[in-house]
Write a structure and sequence with these properties.
This protein is α+β, with helices and mostly antiparallel strands. Helix content is about 25%, strand content about 40%. The protein has a 5-stranded antiparallel β-sheet, covered by helices on one side. The chain has a 4-stranded antiparallel β-sheet with strand order 3-1-8-9, covered by helices on one side. Helix 2 runs antiparallel to helix 3. It is globular. It starts with a strand and ends with a strand.
Length: about 180
């Protein structure tokens, strides 16, 4: 059986709730966005795609090794980001300020997973973000985002191996395992 897996940082519930309140405000603009629910908010470090159950333990072993060399660190949310751009976005998200610790963690995960040959190879350079919503490519005026203040920060104390189960109403995320960073 195949499992759709990814590796992520899950913000604390208080941060997820604050972002949920922001999403409620953004919905008032009536943009054609399918907004995420607070429970699904995360920073994706590596999307593995569909992998066999037999590979999950190998991924867990890689993550155990990565966290041995990683101490807790702060990340800062600093405004909005759109992919591929604000003019014709597919994704609207919150931008994570450049963080050397975050880039080192993501790079160590990519290297470790890459050495196993498991899952998908990342095609794009890493841009830390929390996806707020997805939309089909269309023109929409997102200029209002520039006037909305969105700043926050939190301590990254763990990473999680997550499973995404696709359902008719959308995907559901379940934590498969969690790995504590060194304090």
């Amino acid at each position: 059986m195949l499992h759709r897996m990814f590796i992520a940082i899950n913000p604390p519930e208080s941060v997820k709730n604050d972002i949920g309140e922001l999403i409620v405000k953004l919905k008032k603009y009536c943009w054609p966005v399918n907004w995420e629910t607070p429970g699904k908010l995360h920073i994706t470090l590596h999307f593995l795609g569909h992998i066999p159950e037999s590979d999950i333990q190998i991924v867990r072993d890689v993550l155990c090794e990565v966290v041995k060399n990683t101490v807790q660190f702060e990340v800062k949310i600093d405004g909005f980001v759109a992919f591929p751009n604000f003019k014709f976005p597919n994704i609207i998200g919150l931008k994570i300020s450049d963080s050397e610790a975050l880039f080192r963690l993501q790079s160590a995960i990519n290297q470790g997973i890459g050495e196993t040959g498991i899952g998908l190879v990342e095609k794009h350079s890493f841009t830390g973000h929390i996806t707020l919503g997805r939309l089909k490519p269309t023109y929409a005026n997102f200029k209002a985002l520039s006037g909305i203040l969105c700043k926050s920060q939190f301590t990254v104390s763990s990473i999680e191996l997550m499973e995404s189960v696709l359902k008719p109403a959308g995907s559901e995320y379940m934590m498969s395992s969690s790995y504590q960073l060194r304090s």
